């Protein structure tokens, strides 16, 4: 597996080693020791163990996010797409971070098999680029409704460069009225 640090050093794109021949292909999607060793080699901390797996299916244009969990239920996420494709975004919301309010993104697809490691302290969102996009993610903590938080996906201060889709975006009512990034900052003071 190859780890590629993004402009926010703690967020990493993972390119797994894929073995293919005329029969198809094989890849190891997760190996705890190898993942931890690879993070350590980059000078990054290792995450808590993964305790929950989630799977969503979205139609083209469905935009989910920007979601996060507050402490003590903060979640690190290892995400990937196994069918279709998605534009995946991580936003740094750590109060004392020098990259607070910055974001990084990557296209994840069944074809490129890339994964995205998003540690605790980040808001996360994605938009499905194809119908029937299946999105999988492992989390380092369980979901807790009282700890959930959100930031509006199109906040002008964050200025996330979402891909232009002819069909536009399909956003849940809840995500459409999420607080601004400024409101989040005022809440954590």
Going by helix content, strand content and strand pairing, the class is: mainly beta
Portion of residues within helices? 10-25%
Radius of gyration: 16 Å
Strand sequence of the main sheet, in spatial order?
1-2-10-7-12-5
Total strands? 14
Order of helices and strands: EEEEHEEEEEEEEEEHH
Mean pLDDT: 95
What global shape is seen? globular
CATH topology: Jelly Rolls
Q: How many separate domains make up the residues?
A: 1
What's the CATH first level? Answer: Mainly Beta
Task: Please give the CATH architecture.
Answer: Sandwich
Number of helices: 3
- What is the CATH homology-level superfamily? Jelly Rolls
Low-confidence stretches: none
Instruction: Give the N-to-C terminal Cα separation.
Output: 39 Å
GO molecular function: dTDP-4-dehydrorhamnose 3,5-epimerase activity
Organism: Entomomonas moraniae
Function: Catalyzes the epimerization of the C3' and C5'positions of dTDP-6-deoxy-D-xylo-4-hexulose, forming dTDP-6-deoxy-L-lyxo-4-hexulose.
Active site: 67, 137
């Amino acid at each position: 597996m190859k780890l590629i640090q993004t402009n926010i050093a703690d967020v990493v794109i993972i390119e797994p080693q894929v073995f293919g021949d005329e029969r198809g292909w094989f890849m190891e999607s997760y190996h705890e020791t190898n993942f931890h060793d690879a993070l350590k080699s980059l000078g990054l901390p290792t995450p808590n163990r993964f305790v929950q797996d989630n799977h969503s299916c979205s139609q083209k244009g469905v935009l989910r996010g920007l979601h996060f969990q507050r402490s003590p239920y903060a979640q690190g996420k290892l995400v990937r797409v196994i069918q279709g494709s998605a534009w995946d975004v991580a936003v740094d919301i750590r109060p004392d971070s020098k990259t607070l309010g910055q974001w990084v993104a990557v296209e994840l697809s069944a074809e490129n098999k890339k994964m995205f490691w998003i540690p605790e302290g980040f808001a996360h969102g994605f938009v499905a680029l194809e119908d029937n996009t299946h999105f999988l993610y492992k989390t380092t903590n369980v979901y807790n409704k009282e700890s959930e938080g959100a930031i509006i996906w199109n906040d002008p201060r964050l200025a996330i460069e979402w891909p232009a889709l002819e069909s536009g975006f399909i956003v849940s009512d809840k995500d459409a009225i999420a607080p601004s990034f400024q409101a989040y900052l005022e809440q954590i003071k």
